[in-house]
Amino acid sequence: MASLSLEEEYREAFQLFDTVGDGKIECSESGDVIRSLDFNPASEEIKKVVIDIDPKGIKRITFEEFLPILHAVAQKCPKKPKPEEFFEGLKVFDKDGYGVVLSGELRQVLTSLGDKLTDDECDVLFREVEDKKGRINIEEFVKMVLSG
């Protein structure tokens, strides 16, 4: 089976978000489509590009109108990190080298840097991986985050 060209891959992802079947998506869904293509743009980056096209947040756009949004955002943002890169980034917080981080430290980072999470979002995120002592196994956390 031949692999899809980039444009075909982009079109396929776009079509998944076309819930009406008219060849259009809500302009506000552009970020979701872009993220589904393994790009990791900050919400603010998406807003900067989309606001010029759809200042009122109500426009439906075609694939051809979506492509410039994708290209503008893709030039400024990286692809999603590989598990090894994510793991290495979290090891900075593993002071003792046991493969665990304190949930309080991780919460501080997640609620204050980049696309900030709320405390409630951190609670949901940590629920499955935090032990009774407030520690999070880095490997389990990376697997959980990257799987869903």
From TrEMBL:
Checking SMART domains in the record gives: EFh
Q: Which domain of life is it from?
A: Eukaryota
Keywords from UniProt, A to Z, are: Repeat
Spell out the PROSITE patterns in the cross-references: EF_HAND_2
Q: Which GO terms describe its cellular component?
A: myosin II complex
Any idea which GO molecular function terms this record carries?
calcium ion binding
Matches recorded under InterPro entries? CALM/Myosin/TropC-like, EF-hand-dom_pair, EF_hand_dom
Q: Which Pfam families match?
A: EF-hand_7
The protein's name is Myosin-2 essential light chain-like
- Species source reads Paramuricea clavata
